[in-house]
Write a structure and sequence with these properties.
The longest helix is centred in the C-terminal third of the chain and has 19 residues. This protein has 29 helices and 35 strands. With about 900 residues, it is α+β, with helices and mostly antiparallel strands. It is globular. The structure holds one RNA strand of 85 nucleotides.
Length: about 900
RNA sequence: GCGGGCGUGGUGAAAUUGGUAGACACGCUAGACUUAGGAUCUAGUGCCUUGCGGUGUGAAGGUUCGAGUCCUUUCGCCCGCACCA
């Protein structure tokens, strides 16, 4: 009986679907285990072989946990709001919901073919009203909350109001905007609602504000910092410029410290943790106020090195700093204006690409040194960023490389601060050394820093401060295909709709482009207003809104009273294992932690962190093939001869290439412009293609579709092969050639159970060697699964099946079927059923290994001298180490091995190797 | 520049965490069988050498009875971030 993967896989996929085999219960006495994949955006291109890598890995783990006695939650859904569907809608007029629906159907059918054990009863889609109902609800909770620094958690805004009523702004101790005004309790009492609302907006965890944002004209929307790469939009690659707009923001900065601290509690890779730490960017230092000479103006700077304050020889403001125009002297006005204009013309991209060029301008104004009273020239320079700190720095050329370069360029003094440190050619940035000025003379770094801060505080000129790089996250998008805000406006002031009015449904529009007046697409919607006629918010939420809490919805996906019941949340707690790509390091993975902490503060979720363990699977890359066209002709020259010509390398579809050699007829038929192609081949008549490993993408014609693999080799082969390819976390190129190895393995395994006539499993008693093979496999595979070393597990299966060739014994083959089932579930079910069992193998207990089968009776010890193998000797394992030693000394080969040297010590390593120390 | 990671055959990779380097698989070579197939099976395959043997984990040192693994220096590659004061 042949192994027929097509029938077997179809049969069991149907069985699993009909029996809801993988449905998880919210009410179980078993311990819970939550295995989550990062849900995909269903793009039009469908899946390629790289996508399922993480899904297969998590599926193996989920299946293993079911076997070992856990109630496993393993759900899947779709991050369904997003730009491509909207772009498609703009071009074709087809509603994004239809595009999305089609893409989801395609994804689902592809996923089903791989045999993944998802609980599809719990599927979520972020674009469905019953889901975004709760995204809107969370938004309202954030709006009605503030971050209390005394309690160190988010609280209801009413608490803040009570405090403000009692003690004015000084009583607040809350995370707030920098420009939050000072006011007394009496002031507060005298304010009207509008004024109070304006003030509360400065405390709320989501708030409307005029912010400088990353505006992408090509996409017609704003982007978050993590959606901008090198000054271009991540999606589409359009230029991005800075622009001021009225936007909703999320006060994620309030959680900066807790987001940092939480990293120590979770099992994530160092690289992701470091990325998040860097993104949050905590730096400890001081803020100092400097007066502008001859005026009543002053400005604040932030420095991490208050100890260097005696080395300040100039100040630098960002060109965009509001004070620049006020303090510039008439004589310098022209130069400064020219510089500001030049800077604003340079795109973000240019500015970043060109970090070594020093530029700036003198404002003509001077600041006063708080300790010495010296006049310090104030410059502007684009190396100071408006968006970080206060957009102003005190420049200490002797202690900072950038200040040093700037000082050199403009001929400014470089004043030493440390004793005997050479600053003649570069800044001395290390923190060792002894200070030479004033009240810190003779002090070291720590003392000097403390003294300077203390003195500044005493003078009310500054204070110790912790600065974060993290910015509040912009939450408005000028798009159609996203969650509408539950917000309306009255006299220009935003108000939340009542929770009973949720969900606010996304209205129909006749055009998906911005309106003529530049309003977002929702400006086209008819009657987009409340019952009372107040206008609704026209922006929609960004992509990360829906993905910041979807893992909670899976716990209780059909609840229409709450986002999830507290019973469900308390049972499932958090995600035990999260598998996904590392590209979300500073986006999704940070936002989700932020929302989760907020929901925790408000008492809705029991855990502080959402994802206990995170594994980042590597990317599967494509191997692109190239042909070389001689410029200006339709003649293609083979790899080996291309250097003799001026050629252009062109991608060619990998399916036309086999073993580097091009199917020339197929190539001519591939695209009309190549129909008349001519070839200069190698001497053997073959056309050899160039090769390069790149990301899989349609435009590079290097995509391998999993459907093709599933049809030709089977889902079980695909699963095994993807795991066999290499360590899960590494990126690696896809090579279809190697797949015969695992495919052959499955056929061999099949033959253990079936011969030509059918099932051939017997009830014979297994031999000791057979049991040893089996138990070694059980041990190895269990250890591998728990450490996600799936590639070596697959090898272990191959070895075992080779060892067990010709063994048709039930006592061996039954546990073997269970062992393979997480990896190759279809064939495992088939074997299990053939052996006369009812029901799915999923419910079968995972075998445990018995050490007694692994213990050797005798062992061939390698005998080593000076780390080199000298001879092998067989000894009985019942011998004690002393007896072994005696036997070795008596061995006749010892003479040659030690060349007569005295044996000082006999070391037995791991009971396996004998090392003679001479 | 900073952060994370990596460097082992022709290729993807293993190595019990300091203990016989190259498991397993691809590829390649030879052979068997054959109703000629991109099937199956057998043997071989790090490098040098006819052989004995020698040598070998990017390079150079060090610690150790023993180093792919630990330490120092150095070279190279990949990923992420990038004027953050």
């Amino acid at each position: 009986m042949e192994y027929n993967h097509i029938e077997i896989e179809k049969k069991w996929q149907k069985y699993w679907a009909e029996n809801h085999t993988y449905a998880a219960s919210n009410d179980s006495s078993l311990p819970k285990y939550y295995v989550l994949d990062m849900f995909p955006y269903p793009s039009g291109a469908g899946l390629h072989v790289g996508h399922p890598l993480g899904y297969i890995a998590s599926d193996i783990y989920a299946r293993y946990r079911r076997h070992t006695g856990y109630n496993v939650l393993h759900p899947m859904g779709y991050d369904a709001f997003g730009l491509p569907a909207e772009q498609y809608a703009i071009q074709t007029g087809q509603h994004p919901a239809i595009t999305t629906e089609e893409n989801i159907a395609r994804y689902r059918s592809q996923l089903d073919k791989i045999g993944l054990s998802f609980d599809w009863d719990r599927e979520v889609r972020t674009c469905m009203p019953d889901y975004y109902h709760w995204t809107q609800w969370i938004f309202i909770q954030l709006y009605n909350s503030y971050y209390d620094c005394d309690e160190n958690r988010a609280m209801k805004i009413e608490h803040l109001v009570a405090k403000l009523e009692k003690g004015g702004s000084d009583a607040a101790h809350a995370a707030c905007d920098d420009d939050t005004p000072y006011f007394t309790a009496e002031d507060w009492a005298s304010y009207d609602d509008k004024k109070r609302n304006e003030i509360l907006a400065k405390y709320r965890l989501t708030y409307l504000s005029e912010t400088e944002v990353n505006w992408c004209p090509g996409l017609g929307t704003v982007l978050a910092n993590d959606e901008v790469k090198d000054g271009l939009s991540e999606r589409g690659g359009f230029p991005v410029v800075r622009k001021k707009m009225l936007q909703w923001s999320m006060r994620i900065t309030a959680y900066a410290q807790r987001l940092l601290d939480g990293l120590d509690m979770i099992d994530w890779s160092d690289s992701i943790k470091e990325s998040q730490r860097y993104w949050i960017g905590r730096s400890q230092g001081a803020s100092v106020w400097f007066d502008v000479d001859g005026t009543d103006k002053k400005f604040e700077i932030f420095t991490t090195r208050p100890d260097t304050i005696f080395g300040v020889t100039f100040m630098t403001l960002a060109p965009e700093h509001p004070l620049v125009r006020e303090i510039t002297t008439p004589a310098q006005k022209e130069e400064v204006e020219a510089y500001i204009t030049a800077t604003s013309m340079r795109s973000e991209r240019e500015r970043m690409a060109d970090v070594t060029r020093i530029s700036g301008a003198f404002t003509g104004a001077y600041a006063i040194h708080p300790f010495t009273g010296e006049r310090i020239p104030i410059y502007i320079g684009d190396y100071v960023l408006a968006g970080y700190g206060t957009g102003a720095v005190m420049a200490v050329p002797s202690g900072d490389t950038r200040d040093y370069a700037f000082a050199r360029h403009f001929g400014i003094d470089i004043k030493p601060i440390l004793k005997d440190k050479d600053i003649s050619s570069e800044a001395y940035t290390a923190k060792d050394g002894t200070y030479i000025h004033d009240f810190i003379a003779g002090d070291d770094y720590t003392t000097a820093t403390a003294k300077v801060i203390e003195k500044l505080e005493g003078m009310h000129r500054g204070r110790g401060k912790i600065q974060y790089r993290l910015r509040d996250a912009v939450f408005s998008r000028q798009r159609y295909w996203g969650e509408p805000f539950p917000v309306y406006y009255k006299d220009g002031v935003p108000y939340m709709l009542g929770e009973d009015k949720l969900p606010v449904l996304l209205p129909e529009v006749d055009k998906y482009l911005p309106t003529e007046s530049g309003e977002p697409p929702l400006g086209h919607a008819k009657d987009w207003q409340t019952e009372e006629g107040y206008p609704m918010e026209l922006n929609t939420m960004p992509g990360w809104a829906g993905s910041s809490w979807y893992f909670l919805r899976y716990m209780d996906p059909h609840n229409d009273k709450e986002f999830a019941s507290s019973e469900a949340l308390n049972y499932w707690q958090d995600v035990d294992l999260y598998i996904g790509g590392s590209e979300h390091a500073t986006g999704h993975l940070l936002y989700a932690r932020f929302w989760h902490k907020f929901l925790h503060d408000m008492g809705y979720v029991p855990t502080e962190e959402p994802f206990k363990k995170l594994i980042n699977q590597g990317m599967i890359l494509g191997t692109s093939a190239f042909v070389y066209r001689i410029n200006g002709t339709n003649t293609f020259v083979s790899e080996g001869k291309k250097d003799a010509y001026q050629t252009t390398a062109l991608h060619v579809d990998v399916s036309l290439v086999q073993n580097h050699s091009l199917d020339m007829e197929g190539f001519k038929a591939w695209r009309p412009e190549y129909a008349t192609a001519e070839f200069i081949t190698e001497d053997d008549g073959r056309y050899i293609c160039g090769e390069e490993v790149e990301k899989m993408s349609k435009s590079k014609y290097n995509v391998v579709n999993p459907d093709y693999i599933v049809e030709n080799y089977g889902a079980d082969t695909l699963r095994l092969y993807e795991m066999f390819l290499g360590p899960l976390e590494l990126s690696k190129p896809w090579k279809t050639e190697g797949i015969n190895g695992v495919s052959g393995f499955l056929k061999k395994m099949w033959k253990l159970y079936f011969d030509r006539d059918g099932l051939c499993v017997t009830d014979e008693v297994p031999t000791r060697d057979e049991l040893k093979s089996l138990h070694r496999l059980i041990k190895k595979v269990r250890e591998d699964i728990e450490s996600f070393s799936y590639n070596t597990s697959v090898s272990a299966f191959m070895i075992a099946v080779n060892d067990l060739k010709g063994c048709h014994k039930r006592a061996i083959l039954e546990p073997l079927a269970v062992l393979i089932s997480p990896f190759a579930p279809h064939i495992a079910e088939e074997l299990w059923e053939a052996m006369g069992h009812e029901g799915s193998i999923t419910r079968v207990e995972y075998p445990t290994h018995d050490e007694k089968y692994l213990v050797e009776t005798s062992f061939e010890y390698p005998v080593m001298v000076r780390g080199k193998l000298r001879f092998k000797a067989e000894y009985d394992l019942s011998m004690s180490i002393e007896e072994v030693e005696k036997a070795i000394r008596a061995d006749e080969r010892i003479e040659k091995a030690t060349q007569g040297a005295e044996i000082k010590r006999v070391v037995v390593v791991h009971g396996k190797i004998i090392n003679l120390v001479i």
